[in-house]
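example protein:
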Amino acid sequence: MNRSNRHSPSAQSSVAGLVAAAKAGDRRAFDRLVERYRPGLRALCLDRVTDFDKAEDLAQDALVQAYQRLHQLQDDAAFPTWLRQIAVNRCRRRLERPWPPTVPLDEEHCGHLTRDAFREAMRREAARELRAALAGLPENNRVALLMFYLRGDSRREIEEFLGVPESIVKEPKRT
């Protein structure tokens, strides 16, 4: 969903109403929930697994699992918390298995890559280094920063996703 539509009346429908409609078989209602919560899920998963592609896969897995088990959710308004817990559990299970080994990025190891591929690999390496720097922050702070800087989410959107009261999230500085 583009930024201008995010605050339209249809995007402001209650979470409980969208969940109830999705439970009744309205796929568009679930699509709207996906549009609303996918960015936060990606940030949460990225915080856990440190790899953009794996985070995207885990966020998608969590959304698929939520869709398949939506009928098990007893309190429709609790959807954001329930969905976050599904994502956390997916990440936890994935982290129980070892990741494939990585090789440091430099010209010696990456000489076969094109210039664009090498730049992309270096960008990913920088992202890993940033992730290491963020690791010292509490989880909610890391997720809030990722949502704000990577997705451009507003304070309200971050507070809603994290399930914290209004005014808890302070507006980070944009550089």
About this structure: Residues 1-101+137-175 form a domain with the Rna Polymerase Sigma Factor; Chain: A fold (CATH 1.10.1740.10). The chain is about 65% helix and 0% strand. The helical segments are 15-23, 27-49, 52-68, 79-95, 107-110, 115-134, 139-151, 155-162. Confidence is low (pLDDT under 50) at residues 1-12.
